[in-house]
Amino acid sequence: MRNKILILAAGSLLSACSSGVVPAGPDTYMIARSVPGFSNAKLAKAALYKEASAWCQKNGLVMVPIASDSVNAEMGKRFASAEITFRALRSGDPEIKRTNIDSPNSTQRIEFR
Description:
This protein is of the alpha+beta class.
């Protein structure tokens, strides 16, 4: 019984906490994830791209990345985390083109006017 409790506790510490897909403007969405423990932020970011792409496909849309950011865990200070911003567009939309995502660990500011 004690081993089962330890296994469940360890599993809950390793699970990631995702924001889910959140609207961030017309056809624009963001999603964020923090990963407890000593996980790599790049793995969290990869999981976000998969989640965003699956969400778009489920809704009949095409995911077009706009920006991304990630921060590795730092013992005693923070968990690893990542976020991506993307557009969800209908197939054939002229805005769908080859993406040029910002380099890792940079932030793109999006202004709404």
